[in-house]
Each structure stands twice: as structure tokens, then as C-alpha cells.
Fold:
Amino acid sequence: MNNVTIIGIDLAKRVFHAHGAYIDGSVAFRKRLSRAQVLPFLATQASCVVAMEACASTHEWGRAIQQLGHDVRLIPPSYVKPYVKRQKNDTADAEAIAEAGSRPTMRFVAVKTEEQQARSMVFRTRDLLVRQRTQLINALRGHLAEHGVVAPQGPAQLKTLSSVLENADVAVPQLVRDIGRVYLEQIEQLSARVASLEKTLRHEAQCGEETRRLQMMPGIGPITTMAVEAFAPPMKTFKRGRDFAAWLGLVPAQHSTGGKQRLGRTSKMGQRDIRRLLIIEAMAVIRWVFRRGARPGSWLSHIMDRKPLMSVAVALANKMARSIWAMLTKKEDYQDPDLAAA
Structure:
């Protein structure tokens, strides 16, 4: 087994399967391991490549296996699927993982640190609470609409709904008022928790040099900087800013064949949290430009005259992604491209 060059591991809760292969691809071993046996077994193996699917608990396993001296490669599950032969089972999955991990052109996922995962937990928890608050607000609006009380969307309309429930002149049953107050109490609690998590994100965003640098870009706030810090791999992974924008899914999907280039809508194949935030902040920049007016001859004013609003937002988000890559790789502060070209 000293000549084993790659080990593919199919992760699970209790029962794991390992597939070892030699340098020529032939099978070295197939083993069924319990959770407690995985690390002791890998500790007996010479340093080699250990490949796993990038799924739940992968990064924890990756850090532990790296400490044993192995080269850990995490593969997106969609890239492993083509290597599964006929029937799907744990043994076949482990073999497919080893086969995919040995491909020279395979794309891998960087192992995250504990700090990155902790920050991603804060970000995801805030996102979950915001969705729950939105669900409660929409549910309350829907119930009150059945009794003739119609209010616009958004948390800003909660005062209107609260005043309606407290107004005795409005013809609403008492039971509806009582249940409505329950909704308002839950929404208030969620809003307080969201505000607390946002305070934590702002504090974390001010602690790092890179996160402070990113906030110098117009439109980029602490939440987006923390999302980049938590979810994006090291920027040295990408050769150029366009590669980072493509990784985020901010490029057109291709349906090209026969030497003819056919481009569709944005691919949306990358990290959705960062992509969503960049598009939202690009829209905020565009709204600010609408109020103040774009600089004559600037890139943004030129594209706003030719493209619809959403296309402009995606293009600006793409430009922001490429600027993020440049700022982090070159360790430079934000420079206005229009002023630099002047």
C-alpha cells in the first residue's frame, strides 16, 4: 500500500468507504470504515492525495486529514457524478471520487478554515432570520387582507399594520387582533436578532485589513465583505478577475457549437450568496446614480443609455467582482476607473 497515490473517501454519518488506487489507476484496496476508523487508517498511509466530495462536514474532515500530511482535494458533487459507473452505491461512489480527483483538469474546492466557517455561520443565520421575518410579514399581510386591510410590502409597513390592529374603529375581529399581535411580537424579536447579527458582522468587517479595503469600493458594505471572506476561495486560485466573476455566475451561459458563439442569460452557476449581494448593491449604486446623475462619459452612463436596468446591474456586479479580485490580489485600495483613465 506504500505506492498508493490517491484515496477516494465517500463520506457518511457512520459508515465510510475508501477506495485506494495506484499511479496507473489500478485498484489498491477497497475498505469499509467506521467514523472512528477513518483517521487512524489514513495515519498509516504514506502521504498521498485524499479526495472527497464537497458536502456537509467535508471541511472539518479536510483539516483533520491535512494534519496527517495528506493532500486534500474537495470536488463538487456534480463533477463526480459522470465518473460513477452504472449502479450507484457507496463503493462505486468512492471509486468515482478517486477517479475524478486524479484528473489533471478537475476543479477543486479550497478547504475552509474554522474562522471562515464561523463567519459563514453568522452570515447564514442572519439570512435565515431575515427570510423568517419576511415570511411572518407576508403571512400577516395576507391574513389582514382577508379582512379588508391592505398594506404594501416591506418591513417599513409594520407601523401601518400595528396601528390598524390597535385602532378600535377598524372592523376587525378581536381574535384577528390577538393573533396579529403574536405576529408583531415575533417579527420584533427577529428584527432585534437580525440587528444584533449585523452588528457582529460590522465589527468583524472592521477587524481585517482586506475587509476594510473592500468597503472603500462604492456600494460594497460590511455584509458583502464578510460574505466574500467566508465563502470565496483564496483569490490566487483565479488567474484573472474574469475567472472570479465567472465563478460567481456573473457571466452569460454559453450554448455555442459549430464555431458559432451563442450567449444566453447569466449562468448562475457559482456562489449564489456573493452573487446576490453584488447585484443588490449594484442596483443601489444605479439608484444613487439616477438621483445624482452619472458622470458624463463614464462607463456607467454609457451602458445605462444602451441596456435595460437589470442588464446594467449584472454588468456592474461583474465589474465589482473583477475589482474585488484586483484589490485582494494586488493589495491595493479602490481606484475609480473613470478618474484613472482621465
About this structure: The CA atoms of residues 201 and 234 lie 20 Å apart. The first strand starts at residue 6 and ends at 10. The beta strands are 6-10, 15-21, 27-34, 49-53, 71-75, 252-254, 263-266.
